[in-house]
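Why do we bother with holo predictions? Because pocket geometry can differ from the apo form. Keep that in mind while you read this record for coenzyme a persulfide.
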Amino acid sequence: MQVHDSLSKVYDLPLFDNAHRQLVRDLSRWCAANLARDEREDEFVDIDAQCRALVTMLGEAGWLRYCVPANVGGVFPQLDVRTLCILRETLAYHEGLADFAFAMQGLGSGAITLAGTAEQQQRYLPGVAAGKLIAAFALSEPGAGSDAAALTTTATRDGNSYCLNGSKTWISNGGIADFYIVFARSEDVAGPKGISAFIVPADTPGLVIAERINVIAPHPLATLRFEECRVPATNMLGAAGEGFKLAMQTLDIFRASVAAAATGFARRAIDEAVQYVKQRRMFGQTLADMQMTQAKLANMATAIAASTLLTYQAAWFHDVGNYGAKREVAMAKMTATESAQKVIDDAVQLFGGRGVQQGQITERLYREIRALRIYEGATEVQQLIIARSLLKGGRK
Ligand code: COS
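The structure, written out:
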């Protein structure tokens, strides 16, 4: 299979520099050689071990170095969103779980990169980059998903420590992470300004994996409970009361990469579909000869091109433009995930019955894309962000 046949020219645009272009080439070669797991009968078996193995592989190959800044073993002085997007797009094209493993190392450690002290960064980020420490981001709660500022987990100051009580759910890497970035209410202020962020090592007494959650595209996911879970006060990340902003800043970076992952899945779907329709015969011709097929392919390719441009526009605004990119990030996340769902559905339709057969790539993509319209801010949350930004009349 040709790698990224669907839109390889996009990287020629001046949104990228030569280091990005080289990364696409190197990573595509590595993925083709190392992630060729098309037949995934074992997809539902021992997902924790699969995920750990992928983190190790990505660490050993050096790809996780793009998740951390240069002062702790990373590649760039700051996180480069275009690079994160290239990584996720390419990994997702080849293997959804590899994309997940990469993304969660970045999301789970992003708040340390953005707000950690030198000591906190030194303690955690080299291990993240090497694939030796698994990270997780713990924001959502049973009663606070889209409305993240409604979270009720508490962090009560007690001498030189904070004592955490409450529950977190839908936590990716829950159960296999070595540490969690936990957002909890530490200040006596209602709403977002009462929230702070904490680093909680997985072996801290009082941190309980309450339930493992199974979803249609398996990956490690859990509900956590904090029962008198005590961490040193020095584990607070950034300033007291700044946790909500830190969560949003982290998401501004990684939501763009969700858009990129969606585009990677969609590209894989169209590449598979193009190959298939050229050889599948019906009514005395190939599927590719039929204008209905051609219309579908044209719409799929155009949707992917639009998503790609929105994604890398958002990433460029973040990396190079010196203004907030949250509106563009939200546009990219919403559009790329929604249209990837449609592109993959169209690919399934072109494959007919085989499209939904277990073990087929289209069937896997169909399951894998769905959660991206929900996690890291559902489409409806992105709509709120875009509209509020417009109504406010500024970019911030
Ligand atoms: N960067 C920096 N600061 C931000 C920010 C961002 N992207 N977004 C919001 N803030 C700040 C605001 O500026 C505001 O601070 P000030 O009052 O000092 O200006 C504060 O945070 C509160 O912002 P806002 O009033 O917009 O918060 P809301 O409670 O209305 O929440 C949404 C806004 C819905 C956008 C937020 O709750 C959200 O993103 N929800 C989805 C959560 C999510 O993605 N969960 C998935 C977790 S990972 S799977």
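Residues 386 and 392 are 10 Å apart (CA to CA).
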